[in-house]
Amino acid sequence: MSEADHEVIVIGAGPAGAAIAAQLAARGHRVLVVERSHFPRFSIGESLLPQCMSHLEEAGLLEAVQAAGYQPKNGAAFTRGGESTAIDFREKFTPGWGTTFQVERADFDHRLIEAARAKGAKVEFGATVTAFRADPDRPEVDVVDESGNASTLTARFVVDASGYGRVLARLEDLERDARQIPRTALFTHVEACPVEPSHDREKILIGVHPDDAGIWYWLIPFRDQRASVGVVGQTARIDAYGHSPETRWQALIDAEPRFRQLLEGARSTRPVGELRGYSADVTRLHGAGHVLLGNAGEFLDPVFSSGVTIALKSASLAAPLVDRQLAGETIDWQGQFEQPLRAGVETFRAFVDAWYDGRLQTIIFHADAPRDIKERISAILAGYAWDRRNPFATDSARHIDTLAAICESQAASRAPGPGTANARQPDPGPSPETER
Hints:
single chain; alpha+beta; eight-stranded mixed sheet; 14 helices; globular; FAD-bd; Flavin-dep_Halogenase_NPB; FAD-dependent oxidoreductase
């Protein structure tokens, strides 16, 4: 056979694509990244988790991130009905990074892919993949540029890091039920977001709607009094707040006292964006001559900012396997990539489900959590969902159930008694017909 056009073709130039392209190019492989957009371009997923830092360092991309001067982040603050609490990622069970950054993704993603290019990866923007033919030795992709010129490219391996584009999931008919209730996110950027003593800009702020615990808010501080602000909830509930994304976003902000206070006088710098039914999953993450990374395979929910962490973790797992396969080894992609990656994703899933059904909110807002329990939960929320020494990673649902029951019992023993109203209602979990 003639030599392939490229050893590796990476579809998508987001964090997963940049990370694996950088690692494989640094190993001497001929890598082409094809990206349908032009960078910089807007994206959400702006609050990183500390686990990301080790993966960026491994990919040789950390220096580019640290040079950007992003807003530091050391944890998450929570507000609900006048209650406030916080989790400090530096106080965690798992060793490793305890701090990270809040980033504007347009700049962050651009820096990552340019750093990958500096390591030798070739990048083509404005190129759309229209077809794919799987093959264990010579997979092919059809690409169309913005002028309408079509070409067929061969490779020895193809990586799908297309994020929400989900290129191979669509072309290979891999999509399946995501096991999440359809939800909608509304989001924008604001400026003149005030700095005040009670607002810790080194933490993402997560709020809970005062009358509906299934609707939550994020406020991600950036430098210079700017911030990303979003609202998430079941689609039908979000739609009830207005006839346009802007009116719904504003009505929901006005409904939460802490967010209304913080954003008084703040100005939106872009139209309110809307992402509906964002959760996704696939039947498999690998096949003949290809692998799916990050959101191109599975996306859960933005509540704990796990998207970029999962994307970088998938690149970290896949890069050495692609390198070894190109060297002629036979790789067990199921056992060495898919199973370990999905193990951490399932840990995040357990925490997402527990947030929406109220169990995790009960735990987080509990006043007297033991230090060792807080450190174990902090480790998961800091992104260390693959630490199998942490019982909240290996048997997440059972430990969350037990801890939530204890917290509820203790809270009930301190309750003021009959007649106290509680309007907050937990978000119901997936209906039985959506369970696998």
